[in-house]
Amino acid sequence: MSLRPLLPLLAAAVLAGCAASPTMPATAPDGARADVAILETTDVHANVLSWDYFKAKDDPTVGYERVATLIRRARAEFPNNFLFDSGDTIQGTVLADYQALVAPIGCDQELAIYKAMDAMGYDGGTAGNHEFNYGLPFLSQVTGTPMEIDGKRTGHCAGPHFPLVLSNVFDATSGKPIFKPWTMVKKTIEAYSADGSRLQVPLKVAIIGFAPPPILKWDQRNLEGKVTVSGVVEAAQRYLPQIEAQHPDLVVAILHGGLNTAPYTSDMENGGWYLAGVPGIDVLLLGHSHTEFPGPRYADMKDVDARRGFVRGKPAVMGGFFGKDLGVIKLALERENGRWTIDRDDTHSEVRPICPQKNPCVPADPAIAPLVAQAHAATLVYVNTPIGRSTLRLSSYFADEGDMTALAVVNAAQRDYVQRELPKLHPELAGVPVLAAAAAFRTGFGGPDDYTDVPPGPLTLRSAADLYFYPNTLAAVKTDGAGVKAWLEKSAERFNRIDPARPGEQPLINTRVPGFNFDQIQGDLSYAIDVRKPVGQRIVDLEYRGKPVDPAQPFVVATNNYRASGGGNFPGLDGSNIVFDTTDGVREIVAAWLKRLGTLDRDALPAPSWHFAPMKTRGPVTFTAAAGKQAIAAADGATGIRQLRENGDGTATYAIDLAGSAPPGADGNRRHARRHAGH
Question: What is the DSSP track for 576-603?
């Protein structure tokens, strides 16, 4: 049927609609104003649902399904809006690992997290460092982005229904960016002329994305020889002329990184402060740091307004992590000399939490859960696969204070694997002592439930996932006694320096050093941490099998690929001394070790390796942990820990008596560790 006879009627209908609508000029006149909201999610880490896969229960304090409610509310408040994501989106939960590693989705399937995000209609996003954890082929597939990988072009698969931009990661062979470096998002917005008339006008927003440059170290196995990376400032300067040639109204930089005013380098992890200083960038979206901006953490930073949300005069926001928050920038735009400008006096940023108080949290958006129900159900079946039993409670509530029950399992499994496999590749290293290093990944950063806690009884794959949070693979490095000490000194930066003569409370933990950088090394090794001493001088009484460690004594240390390749900037660890690595994940190695063991009891674990150097303090030395857990500390032999007070948010302030410090359970375990040495 021809449409030609209907054209006059259609034209009349269009004209009638235009007559009833605000005028639609090609550009806004000078003096016009508009409010535009830039909405941001970041570091969602595949927390699609408000569900804790480790504890097998609802968790209303996290989950994209609740952020979706905030997005809908913000859009109702700000009809002119754009929604962007700053990365670390596809990795971070057992659901993510299931879809990537256990039952990888097909080319025609979309990731659960992208299904949820598509339901909310994003305008763009970028890639964070954890996007690369599963390798480039998987990233290419699930983002729907064909890439050149090892000389072969990947196909076009299902991906998110919004553009992903990344300007500082390039194919190592062709030199071309692996994602589109930038793109233009065009929308019609509502504005008001100087006389109050309502207008419909176009707005062109250019977005440019950036990943943290250290991905080459952190994911060396996946990226070495395949991609190159530039600094974020260099990438911005490279592509901004192209962007400006298209005459955007606004340029939004989407950075998976935070703020750091240390001298700029091209491999700076958190280059947001310097990116904000690049001419041509109007708005900055931040991430990676797992904190909120604006917020008190940045109150004393140079040229930063941590109350209203400006970095070097540019509006900026960083919206939390794990689906806990939504970042919102309310931009007040004013038309001057034929361009939109930002009225900074009427512009501000804020982070809107899904739980504005402890209770209640906002309800979940009902549209999200049905989209991922099948993947969620399959993941639950997977994590409940039995692998053994435990007579012990394995927790990280007091891992910073010397309770190594949970870490000992990881270290025992890592050490066992390397001792069995390393001689097959390197017979010359068969006689070199093997140690193992592990850190507690869950030490309360995400709240009072953010701890490993595996009760006595049946063990499942969920238990292994709780014991080992990240999808790291196993690696081993060759070092010496001096290298082991330097490794431990770096780890001991987790603690503040304590003055024994100071009255009043002194916090033990240096919160600027994350728990995942406090490596604890085991394997017939013992040492003390003297927190009276300055950084770099805290490791004392370092012994191997009861004898002082010779700085020249060779050791092999089993660890994860992140640490072995330089993650955390530990001295002597840059990937050059890796003597063994495998594609096997540490989590899977832990699960296999527990399954072979059958029943886990204290005899199977190595001795706790360290304690604080004893000292008597005038005032209490304090730390924060989940409330009501003192009995767990006592059961594991940490008798010097007592709860002082509850903080009203599920946490409590504890005190630790350093005068009688010793490794929890040391007497009971050392005998067993020696019995099992070399297994």
Answer: TTEEEEEEEEHHHHHHHHHHHH-EE-GG
Domain membership of residue 242 (yes or no) is yes
Q: pLDDT tens-digit profile of 129-158?
A: 999 999 999 999 999 999 988 878 888 999
Task: Give residue 323's pLDDT band: very low, low, confident or very high (50, 70, 90).
Answer: very high
Which parts of 105-181 are beta strand (E)?
124-125, 148-149, 152-153, 169-171
- The pLDDT, as a whole number, for residue 560 is 95
- With respect to residue 623, please indicate whether it lies within any of the assigned structural domains: no
Domain count of the chain?
2
Q: What CA–CA distance (Å, rounded) separates 17 from 4? A: 20
Has residue 12 been placed in a domain?
Answer: no
Q: Spell out the residues 6+ positions from residue 420 whose beta carbon is closer than 8 angstroms to its own.
A: none
29 close to 335: Cβ distance less than 8 angstroms: yes
Residue 69: which of 286, 371, 361 has the closest Cα? 361
Q: Which of 341, 356, 376 is the last residue of a domain?
A: 376
Asked if 439 and 520 count as a contact pair (C-beta separation under 8 A), the reply is yes
Domain shared by 365 and 418, yes or no = no
| Domain finish residue from 353, 376, 399 | 376
Is residue 21 in a domain? no
545 close to 524: Cβ distance less than 8 angstroms: yes
Same domain, 467 and 601: yes
Domain that holds residue 47: 26-376
**Nearest alpha-carbon partner for 388 in 604, 595, 602, 593:** 595
Measured in degrees and rounded to the nearest 5, phi and psi for residue 552 equal: -90, -5
Output the pLDDT for position 674.
Answer: 35
Three-state DSSP class for 342?
Answer: strand
